[in-house]
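Regression test case RT-17, inverse folding.

Input:
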């Protein structure tokens, strides 16, 4: 059963290929039978506290529709990506 999710992730501010990283996340979603509804790049923002030696991060919010297997795979890949400081996936109320 497909549901609507949002993934917010914070990339390290030293990453130069932000478009490629965002495209990689969108590709993970589409390769796992998901549909990207909306993608917002918020840019560089100050972090509430220092993470991995960084005080700023590049914020991205993606809304997508997929099943739970797609979300599990996305979570797994974001956890092992060294360019991602933090991420959070939430299920939106339909």
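Golden output:
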């Amino acid at each position: 059963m497909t549901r609507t999710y949002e993934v917010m992730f914070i990339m390290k501010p030293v990453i130069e290929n932000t478009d490629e990283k965002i495209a990689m996340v969108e590709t993970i979603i589409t390769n796992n039978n998901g549909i990207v509804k909306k993608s917002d790049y918020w840019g560089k923002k100050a972090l509430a506290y220092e993470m991995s030696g960084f005080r700023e991060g590049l914020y991205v919010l993606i809304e997508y529709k997929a099943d739970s297997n797609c979300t599990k795979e996305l979570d797994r890949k974001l956890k092992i990506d060294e360019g991602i400081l933090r991420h959070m996936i939430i299920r939106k109320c339909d």
